[in-house]
Task: inverse folding
């Protein structure tokens, strides 16, 4: 499966989708998030953290000012936010490529800020979240690598089975 699309109708449902994604992760993974401000990127990441067994009492927040937050779960979770970065070279100072090639799960919010970021650093799962209405969102997943396609197929199957 190269592409899959679903709709969520609340923040709780977006978190649930993220949780299913986290539960489906079987190894090192890179997830590139894009979408409008307030569309649900952090919400999806909060669910992903729960699916990775990050303790529920550990707040998962957008790293807008710190640029990266690190969480411990079944896999290490590295949560980047590129919204405030001015230039792609700033990523070098963060050691960004080391996280993308590491053993954990790396989530990159605002991955679309620098064009084809995913192609430059690593193949991963691309997720675009768009407003449909005040509460509902369209979530589009795209995978190019075999590992990302397997992850996406597992997510799509388990998400549909929950209904």
Result:
């Amino acid at each position: 499966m190269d592409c899959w699309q679903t709709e969520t109708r609340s923040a709780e449902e977006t978190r649930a989708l993220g949780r299913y994604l986290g539960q489906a992760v079987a190894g090192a993974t890179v997830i590139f998030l894009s979408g409008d401000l307030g569309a649900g990127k952090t919400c999806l990441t909060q669910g992903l953290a729960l699916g990775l067994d990050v303790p529920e009492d550990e707040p998962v927040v957008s790293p807008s000012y710190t640029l990266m937050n690190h969480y411990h779960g079944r896999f290490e979770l590295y949560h980047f936010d590129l919204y405030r970065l001015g230039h792609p070279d700033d990523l070098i100072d963060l050691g960004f490529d080391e996280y993308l090639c590491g053993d954990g799960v790396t989530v990159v919010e605002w991955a679309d800020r620098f064009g084809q970021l995913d192609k430059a650093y690593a193949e991963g799962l691309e997720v675009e979240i768009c407003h449909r209405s005040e509460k509902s969102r369209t979530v589009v997943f795209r995978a190019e690598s075999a590992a990302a396609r397997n992850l996406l197929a597992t997510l799509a199957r388990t998400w549909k089975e929950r209904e």
The chain has one domain: 3-161. Residues 3-161 form a domain with the Rossmann fold fold (CATH 3.40.50.300).
